[in-house]
């Protein structure tokens, strides 16, 4: 894979460059991520905050996760596309939503979390780590 990879929201108001490979790619099957993605799970690329350069205005939204941690989100105020999630207690790390990258070939989850809430019709591929909840 050649970096940087460009990404943007649907309307193009937020653009970014992923400068190097993610630390990990995770598929989350919790009910909140199903709502977020309007699908069976949400994909997250865990990256160092210094591995991404952003342009454009983003707004925040947050909720308290089952763990008690804050799950913050940054998104485009025009089209509503989520760009990344973050925990304010860990500012050095962000959870990029990689489906809006121009090259999505990096989206190969190595772990599936919250499979206790997984949709019954989805089969998890062999060879990946599986966790009933958050590891």
Features:
135 residues; mainly beta; globular; 8-stranded mixed sheet; 1 helix; single chain; 3-stranded antiparallel sheet
Explain what the structure shows.
- With 135 residues, the chain is mainly beta.
- The chain contains one helix and eleven strands; from the N terminus they run E-E-E-H-E-E-E-E-E-E-E-E.
- The protein has one helix spanning 31-37, and strands at 5-8, 15-18, 24-28, 42-48, 52-55, 59-64, 70-75, 82-86, 93-96, 111-113, 129-130.
- An eight-stranded mixed beta sheet has the order 6-7-8-9-4-3-10-11. A three-stranded antiparallel beta sheet has the order 1-2-5, with no helix packed on it.
- A hairpin with a 5-residue loop joins strand 6 and strand 7 (70-75).
- The radius of gyration is 14 Å and the shape is globular.
- The model has no long low-confidence stretch (mean pLDDT 93).
Which strand-content bin applies to the residues?
Answer: 35-45%
| SSE run | EEEHEEEEEEEE
What general outline do the C-alpha atoms trace? globular
Cα separation of the termini: 28 Å
